[in-house]
């Protein structure tokens, strides 16, 4: 004799995310404090994402693309996005997204106009300037919500 047994499962807890929008000034301040972000561009094989070093110069990001990477080739003259995500605590992060038109800078381009760093003139790679026309950001606090009942 078999007995039908009803099984119940408890769904996993879902993380609760609280966000606060960052002002444009907070976004630029965050970008100036960081040095690495993720460039997203469209290649012949679809969307591509690559983490690269960058500096802020006025209202432009200058991104260093290694010589072996195709990003400069595909990003040139196109609208691209760049995001910087920084963990600010055990359960919090700040994210800034920018978008704009990319252009490959010439051989005499300056990597950093400030005293914090410089790019040696003989360093391989190309510099891509991203003329930012859109910037937004948010602070995310992640916790654990109650299990659904």
From TrEMBL:
Domain of life: Bacteria
Gene3D superfamilies listed in its UniProt record: Electron Transport, Fmn-binding Protein, Chain A (2.30.110.10)
Record InterPro entries: Split_barrel_FMN-bd (IPR012349)
Protein name: Pyridoxamine 5'-phosphate oxidase
């Amino acid at each position: 004799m078999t007995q039908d047994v009803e099984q119940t499962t408890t769904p996993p807890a879902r993380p609760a995310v609280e966000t606060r929008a960052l002002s444009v000034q907070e976004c630029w301040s965050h970008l100036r404090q960081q040095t690495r972000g993720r460039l997203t561009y469209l290649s012949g094989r679809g969307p591509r994402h690559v983490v690269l070093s960058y500096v802020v110069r006025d209202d432009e990001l200058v991104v260093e693309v290694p010589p072996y990477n195709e990003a400069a080739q595909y990003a040139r003259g196109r609208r691209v996005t760049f995001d910087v995500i920084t963990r600010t605590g055990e359960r919090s992060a700040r994210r800034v997204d920018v978008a704009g038109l990319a252009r490959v800078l010439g051989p005499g381009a300056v990597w950093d106009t400030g005293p914090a760093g410089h790019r040696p003139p003989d360093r391989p790679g190309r510099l891509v300037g991203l003329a930012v026309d859109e910037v937004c950001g948010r602070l995310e606090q992640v916790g654990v919500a109650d299990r659904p009942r």
